[in-house]
Amino acid sequence: MPVYNAPLLSIDAKETRRYAGLQKAVDFDEEKILAACEDARLMAAPKGIWEVYDYDCENQIIKSAPPCTIQGQKIGQHLAGCEKIIALSATVGEEVEEEVTRRFNAGEYSTAVIMDAAATAAVEQIADGMEKALTPKMAAQGFAMKWRFSPGYGDWPLEQQPELIRLAHADKIGVSLSSSLMLMPRKSITAIIGLYRKQAETAPSHSPHGCAMCNKTDCPSRKQ
Amino acid sequence: MCKIEIFDGAMGTMLQAGGLQPGACPELMNIENPDVVKNIHNAYIEAGATIIETNTFGASPLKLEHYGLTDRMAELNTAAVKIAKAAAKGRAKVAGSMGPTGRFIEPLGDLSFDEAYQNFYDQAKALAEAGAHFLIIETCIDIQEMRAALLAAKDACDIPVICQLSYSEDGRTVTGTDPQSAAILLDAMGADIIGVNCSLGPEELVPIVKTLAENCTCPISVLPNAGMPYLKDGHTVFPMGPEDFGKWGVKLLEAGASYLGGCCGTTPEHIRELAKAVKDMPLPERRLPAKKLWLTSRSKSVCIDKSLPTRLIGERINPTGRKKLAAEIRDGSLLGVKKEAVNQVKAGAHLLDVNMGVGGIDQAAAMKKAVTEIAQLTDAPLAIDTSDAEALEAGLKAYPGRALINSVSYEPERIAQFLPLAKKYGAAILCLPITPDGVPKTAEERITVMHKIIAAAKEAGLDDGDFLLDALVMTVSADKNACYEVLITLQMYRERFGYPTTMGLSNISFGLPNRPLINSTFFAMCLAAGLDAPIMNPYDESMQKALMASAALLGDDPNGLAYSKNEANLAVPKAAATAKVTELSPLEAIKQAVIDGEKDEIPLLVENALKAGMAANTITEQALTAAMTDIGVDFGAGRMFLPQVLLSAETMRAAFNKIKELTPASTAPEQGTVVIATVKGDVHDLGKNITGALLANSGFKLIDLGKDVDSTDIVRAAIENNADIVGLCALMTTTMVQIDKVIEDLKEAGCNAKVMVGGAAVTQEYADSAGADAYAPDGVKAVELAKELVQK
Questions:
Q1: Do B734 and A3 touch (CB under 8 A)?
Q2: Per 3-state DSSP, what percentage of chain A is helix, strand, and coil (rounded to 5)?
Q3: Which of residues 177-236 of B touch A (CB under 8 A)?
């Protein structure tokens, strides 16, 4: 179970704006966003872990011990043609969310909300950093990577979170589930990345990605 | 000193062609099929390779764990060297190959620096003892792993060590190190040859080779892939043919490399063409960099030099005389230290001094932790400030860059302990002219001591480019010549040594009134006398101003452009702010301030309105509530966004607080009581908090039960507080069902409170079917609905 705690040299202010629902608020004080990003970064303890498994895409079975059958059509389609998968987990730790609550209770409502958004941007960046480190490793073995897919996307039921926690060894980085299947710390990610053998000159057939695949078109955080 | 040498090419693909099975350990071929390995070596030597690499890329103890072969590590490495030497028959030299462990070193991963060191030490020893002529540490993507491997290789043997990192297309290693920082650091640590291999083709590596060559004095090696790979029919294909590959050899030579070879996708034919292309080439003359003082972090290099602008060394990570910071460090918390790191860099510090001098703690552990955390947080290089040799080594070992040691005096212990550590870890040293007899008073005496320190340092293997000279500041109230001697010392340092200079400034004003004035005046004088890198408080405005002005005066800021810009920026915002406020009536101004979220300005506006005889109720209704109504409209129309609404709520809160403070008798009219909670099983409370804050600042009495709240607790609180409304929040489909339960329990208990529900997964339909009285899609709507509900 390889560990890579991708460093956070800064938190992306633009993504933080997006998660805070401020994409269209062009005149919102940039200094305030940057300060919240810095404060969130001080509290963040980036951690990441992953494991590679063989995958039977015909039957949607991850060949772990014991094996795991993935439920959901969307994820099945997404992983079509993949020979292996990476199960990964990333987190910024608990301290950020504790600080968000402290700020809220101290009446710093807007800062709290922006810090919360910064923590979301941060955990995505940590997972992005892991992907960046994984890409050449996988390429050396002849594999290209699909984009990461998490329980709750499409029709992949949250009930499979415990399996994903097991596959990624997420407990080793302090990520666990509440009885109602919520990730703890809240700002954590579990995901699967499909590994396929890319053909030369043919563009890989990726399904719509990220916001584009989501039906909630009025979401304030939808990527423009 | 060097000539062109030709390395061999890829080994793995040729082993596969020779019968290596997928999933088998390639190094086991050294024992089980030595002829295959030998034939590969032969093919490369016949193609023109003058150095061949042993088949030991994955033969380190940690890598061999994968095949359960760790206990055969020495055997596999020894066999590999023997095969290579037998193949070479004196025609080529043998380089013992050491690849990465495949794991990341703390804090990026879970492998400790010491474990990594031991891993490489064992392999290096085995390779050297078997008779390898070089060690080649290659394909590393983490500078910490390279540092561990280089230290281990140098400790294990005396043969030359080649250090090759792999860079991605953005010109940095995956973990963020740029070739300039790598070259400076590895050169200082004593690498014999510095280079790059794998990941990229020769074309992409030309600029990287150039940067390496410009930043170190050792020879440069480059082993590119045969172009950028793609996959075809399940196989990795490298597009560059032998002839094209060979042509790039000349460009790589011109860029500064003298050791050329191939990595993935290259074959004996590639090496033949490469050797042919450069065979008759004279080695292009390489302009070696001047020895200047460079310091590096994982991802950035900083130079201190008289030809460059002043570099600030931030002094704030130091618990001396700071009780709160000291207590935090003692408790093992680094939050204060981390804040100081980030804030000093923001305030303009180029380097950070790190001092963990708190009594009664494990200094070495504290320094290791601080250095590790700060290095993850900022890219400013660090100065490790300690008198404890153990703490110094812990800090140097943990640091993924070239640090500055603060400090080396002419005291026997420091000379004996600190200088070897500086040499080993490639650190620079801050030289302090103090002897066991104390501080020399005059400039002339300081120069004499400094000569002795430099001589001892050079004896220990340090060189020009490793020194930063401290002019030693004493207190002017105790010695009237203190300032004068410093100025002379600075001038003499520049004349006699030419090394850059530093000092801790604030000591000068000890015991005098208005210390900032003395400090900034002294600072300006020192800058003129040749001070390059002061150790100071970067938040100190008077010092920053003195620096700005001095830069303009001394020509570091040509024509005072930066100075002018800074002064102009300072003048603008104040004027704008006053203009806005004066144009509006007091009530309009308060209303506008709420809408704009001017939290800091509103107390004064409210105070003025009250003093002018306005009733508290009038302010509340006509300015504050009116503002919230406008905000609700703008929010609904998508002209205003949640964080802005919350900023307005904060501003409302500040206004209410001021009204309460000045007219305690006036009670705001209460709209009703709301009990609010995130339901059991759900730990998301931001949405609930937002709604609560907006309700509380719209005149509702709020009882917030928090998150993950059991139904019985919600029911009890609703009854005890005679709630008008119960607000329930659930974020996920898995926790939403709790809403039904709470509503049922409320009815069963005979509670008449209206129920309002919300949360990401909740919809109007769900609210209806659960029997809720209202569904609020957001906090602003919740306030509107709450007002309607209490009037029903």
A1: no
A2: 40, 20, 40
A3: 199, 229-236
Q: First and final CA of chain B: distance in angstroms? A: 94
Candidate from A38-47, A151-160, B74-83 with smallest mean pLDDT: A151-160
Say if the Cβ atoms of B642 and A186 lie within 8 Å: no
**B727-757: per-residue pLDDT in tens?**
999 988 888 889 999 999 999 999 999 999 9
CB pairs under 8 A between A and B: 144
A166-190 pLDDT, tens digit per residue, is: 999 999 999 999 888 899 999 999 9
The rounded distance, in Å, linking the Cα atoms of A202 and B111 is: 39
How many other C-beta atoms lie within 10 A of the C-beta of residue B389?
A: 16
Between the alpha carbon of residue B94 and those of residues B60, B81, B295, B581, B778, the distances in Å are 18, 7, 34, 79, 70
CA separation for the pair B341, B379 (Å, rounded): 10
Mutate to test the interface with A, among B232, B340, B372 (most CBs of A within 10 A): B232
For B177, phi then psi, to 5°, come to: -80, 135
Q: Do A133 and B335 touch (CB under 8 A)?
A: no
Smallest Cβ distance to A109: which of B102, B646, B684?
B646
Judge residue B622's burial from the number of C-beta atoms within 10 Å of its C-beta, 0-12 exposed, 13-18 middle, 19 or more buried. middle
ipTM score for this prediction: 0.85
Nearest to A148 by CA among A182, A180, A125, A177: A125
Is the pLDDT at B575 greater than 50, yes or no? no
Contacts 24+ apart (CB under 8 A), A165-168: A165/A89, A165/A190, A166/A64, A166/A68, A167/A51, A167/A53, A167/A62, A167/A64, A167/A68, A167/A87, A168/A1, A168/A49, A168/A50, A168/A51, A168/A87, A168/A88, A168/A89
Distance CA B706, CA B695 (A): 15
Give the tokens for residue B711: 């139904």
H helices of B428-560, where? Answer: 443-459, 482-496, 515-529, 541-554
Q: Determine if residue A159 is left, alpha or beta; phi over 0 gives left, psi from -120 to 50 gives alpha, anything else beta.
A: alpha
Q: Give the residue from B167, B233, B180 showing the smallest Cα distance to B210.
A: B180
pLDDT (tens digit, 9 = 90+) per residue, B17-43?
999 998 899 999 999 999 999 999 999
- Report the distance separating Cα B128 and Cα B81, nearest Å: 9
β-strand partners of B679:
B709
Q: How far is CA B691 from CA B13, B759, B767, in A?
A: 63, 10, 17
Residue that is written with structure tokens 């929010």 in the block: B635
A25/B644 touch (CB, cutoff 8 Å), yes or no = yes
Q: Which amino acid is at B82?
A: K
Cβ(A177)–Cβ(A164) under 8 Å? no
DSSP string, B549-605: HHHHHHTSSGGGHHHHHHHHHHHHHHHHHHHHHHTS-HHHHHHHHHHHT-TTTHHHH
Cβ–Cβ under 8 Å, residues A118 and A1:
no
Alpha helices in B143-262 (DSSP H): 143-156, 179-188, 202-215, 242-255
Tokens 């005291």 belong to which residue?
B411
Q: Is B71 exposed, middle or buried (0-12, 13-18, 19+ CB in 10 A)?
A: exposed
Which segments of B48-92 does DSSP mark as H helices, in order?
61-64, 73-88
Give the integer Cα–Cα distance in Å for B371 and B352.
10
Diameter over CA atoms, chain A? 57
* Angle of helix B711-720 versus helix B733-748 axis, rounded to 10: 40
Q: Reduced to 3 DSSP states, what percent helix, strand and coil does chain B have, rounded to the nearest 5? A: 50, 15, 35
Q: Rounded to whole angstroms, how far apart are CA atoms A2 and B443?
A: 57
Q: How far apart are CA B510 and CA B515, in angstroms?
A: 7
Contact yes or no for A47/A107 (Cβ under 8 A): no
Q: What is the mean pLDDT of residues B316-324?
A: 94
How high is the pLDDT of residue A201?
Answer: 44
